[in-house]
Amino acid sequence: MRMTTSAAARGATALLALALAACGGGDEAAALTLAGSVARPASFTAAELKARYTEVTQDVSYLAGTTPQRRTYLGVPLFDTVQDALATDNNTPGTTNTGNVGRRLVEHYVLATASDGYQVAFALGELSPSFGGAPAPGQPLIAYAQRVEGSVTPLDTLTDGPFRITAPGDLRGGRYASNVTRLDVGVPPATPQSGARPGGPSSAVVVNGKVRSARSFGIADLKALPPKTASYNGTVYRGAGLYELLANTVGLSTSSTGRNNAVLSLYAVVTATDGFRAVVSLGEIHPNFGNRPAIVAYETEAGGGLGSAGALRLVIARNAGTPETMGARQVSNVAEIQVFEAGTP
User: Fold this and answer.
1) What pTM does this model have?
2) Keyword annotations for this protein (predicted)?
3) Which of the residues 6, 26, 124, 156 could staple to 162 if both were Cys, CB 3.0 to 4.6 A apart?
């Protein structure tokens, strides 16, 4: 991947502007709607996105079926666009607050919807460079152009346009949502464990929501599952894989039977005994897509306990070698994991 700075990309920018104008421009240009739990809903054309945010040139590769794909896209960071629409108290990353039930950034997700109804959910915590997001140019983009044989071509003249969400680093292309028309920011509904609560160590975690077999897991139950590891703040933790726990042990369920990659519209809300919670998208931890390490940890790799983090802790990393920057998604004293399907009641 590489990022072309705005100075180096001026020539491409000028060419794209001319091409957009040639395709109609003005009031006839296709627009992307940004709505939901935001303070400032908006609608953007490609030209407006380019004028407002820093343009990024991004080289990506992924599998479409069994066929390797390589693309070079031009667009703006998805996170920048969404964060700009949030209220001030929602868009500032911060440390974990005991019992915090405010709609802070790590409790948000954004759902990208295509013209044919295809949907992909991203957790804002996975997008934010302060938490799980990679530095530019590795962030998902709202792409509006593609470099084809050396020329910048607006996506509205190609089959993937006028807007496409990219997912750099994903193994397969399911989260590269094409023909996107809407971005809806959401905050999960209240769950049995959410709200200001007494807190304290957790001895079991309840897994429920969009699953086939809701149940409670104690430490012994989790230790009986295949162990996996993930790192944060210099410590390697051992625990049950979050994706494997949800997909294989209790099973995932969606209301959209037969829809392609329906699992990508699911997200999990991980809640602590004090009510603090964070969102993890199923797409970011799915082994075919984001493949991020994420575990419900019950011990350190050295065999020690979790200390003040309690008996159970969510540990999630950007990748096998890179932990998340700040710790808000490393939820301590996990009491509940509830799966939701974005875009449904």
Assistant:
1) 0.88
2) Signal
3) 156
